[in-house]
Structure formats: structure tokens, C-alpha cells
Amino acid sequence: MVLREGSRNMFCGGCGNNIATDERFCSVCGQEVSATPASPTPSLGSPSPVIGIFPETSGKAIGSLISGIFFFFVPFSIVAIIFGHLSLSEIRRSAGRLKGRTWAIGGLILGYAGVAVTITVIVAIFVFRQSAPTSALNQQIGTESSAVAAVRTLNTAEIAYSQAHPALGYTCSLSELAGSWGMSGELAGGQKNGYVFKVQGCKPAKTNGPIVKYHLLAYPDQSKGGTPAFCSNESDVIKVARNGSPQDCLTIGIDLSDNEINHPQGWSKASSVETAHP
């Protein structure tokens, strides 16, 4: 038996079970407890109490806590979890000969925290990579829809200007269109949402007569692969060239239907190679 005095524990000499100082018999093996320490020379019968043996700290508990400190590295988190569970089990079976339960629990907390952080980061990266293309596509659709809406606005402004100035007809001046029809300052300046807007090709039906023809262009302000160009004229029909070329839009552009204009799905997804519209 090991007698506890102050901070010392008392253990059964037969099985090593931890025994309270007021118990007479070991609850595990039933051996009688002697309150008086025996002489250093053990008898051949029941083991005598030994004074001065202190519980040791579990090495696995220490390893668990140290590994848990580096929880931001997944392998260390896993080691902290494994050693933490092993040390708790070892301490529980030691009957008081081992300590370090707090260290083991601390290692477990840090280890599981490291695993949780790693899983969160992986999920966040996966969600971001899945949503990024959709977000970029929605942004592109919004930009293209804005350009088409601006072209429609300019066509309406041309009609309003020609009605207000029948002797002049249409105009190739954006500032004059802005004066006859409410337009944003950006559009009146010829640039909006990454697109450049121009009115050109104004021609009269006869010399010194009113302008009856014009070409309206909307194309990306930078060379971006797959970003379409749009164009229109006095017919009010809007065309698209998916390769971004305003010249191709005028010559071989594809007409946009009312459904495409009102419910845009993005015109930059298809091939940039255009064929002549019948």
C-alpha cells in the first residue's frame, strides 16, 4: 500500500488501486488496508505500504498538447487527437499512478479545432470555386444587357430628335440626342459600363436634305475575348457580333429577337465566328 500524506497518494499493494485514507479494504481486490507504514523490508505475505511515490504525467498527454499547439497543420491535429484519447484511457486505467488529464483534454480541443478549421477552409474554397464562374457570368450578362438597353435608348432618342427637327432628320451627335431625350451623363459622353457608344454614317436621302440613315455602334472599350459588340440603325433592329467587332456587327451581325432583348441569357457564350444573317 502507498500512504498519502499531504500530496501523496495511497495505493493498494496488491493491485495498485487508488484507495482513500479512510477505507479499510481495497474495493478491487479486497485486501485489508493498513494505516501504519510497514518497515522497508517487505514480507513474503501481503505487500506493505510504500511512502513517497508521486503520480507521473502521461507522456501521451504531453504529446497531445504539444501537437495541438500546431493545430493549423492537419497532421499535428490528427496526432493531438489520437494521443489525447490514448492518454485519457491510459490515465483512467492507471488507478492514480498517472496524471495529465487536463493536458490531454487541451490537446483534444486544439486537435479537433484544427480539423474543424481545415474542413471549413476546404468547404469555403469549394463553394467559392463553384460560385465564381456563375458570378462572373451574371456580371457579364448584366453588362451586355446594359449595352443593349443603351442602344435602345439611343434609337428612341434618334426618333425623338428627328420628330423634333424634321428638317434635319437624324443626328450623329450624342450631345444633341441627350438634349432631346433624357439620357445619363455617361451615355451622352459615349461610354457606359465598359462599352463605347458611337453614332456614325449619317446620310441624307438627297443633297442638303434631312438625315435619313445612321449607324449606331456599341462595342467593348477594351479588347476582351468573347465580349460581344452591338449595333443598330434607323430600322431600330439591334444586331450582335459575338467576336466584339463593330464592323462585323454592321456587315454580318445577327438580329436579336424581342425575347432575347427582354430576357438576356448572355451573348458571349456562343462561338465568336459569325455567319451572314439571311
Please explain how this structure is put together:
The protein has 278 residues and is of the alpha+beta class. The protein is built from seven helices and eight strands. It starts with 55 loop residues before the first strand and ends in a 16-residue tail after the last helix. Strand 4 (195-204) and strand 5 (211-220) form a beta hairpin. It is rod-shaped, with a radius of gyration of 43 Å. Among the domains are: 1-54, no CATH class; 144-262, Fructose-1,6-Bisphosphatase, Chain A, domain 1 (2-Layer Sandwich). Residues 1-8, 35-51 and 269-278 have low confidence and may be disordered. It has helices at 59-69, 74-93, 101-164, 174-180, 185-188, 246-252, 258-262, and strands at residues 56-57, 98-99, 191-192, 195-204, 211-220, 229-233, 239-241, 254-255. The longest helix is centred in the middle third of the chain and has 64 residues, at 101-164.
The CATH topology name of the domain at 144-262 reads Fructose-1,6-Bisphosphatase, Chain A, domain 1
Largest beta-sheet details: 6 strands, antiparallel
Strand content: 5-15%
Topology order in helix (H) and strand (E) letters: EHHEHHHEEEEEHEH
What strand order characterises the main sheet?
3-4-5-6-7-8
Mean of pLDDT: 79
**What general form does the structure show?**
rod-shaped
Structural class, by secondary structure, is alpha+beta
Fraction of helical residues: 40-55%
E-strand count: 8
Q: N- to C-terminal separation?
A: 105 Å
CATH architecture of the domain at 144-262: 2-Layer Sandwich
Q: Round the Cα radius of gyration to an integer and report it.
A: 43 Å
Q: CATH class of the domain at 144-262, anyone? A: Alpha Beta
| Uncertain stretches of 5 or more adjacent residues | 1-8, 35-51, 269-278
How many helices in DSSP terms? Answer: 7
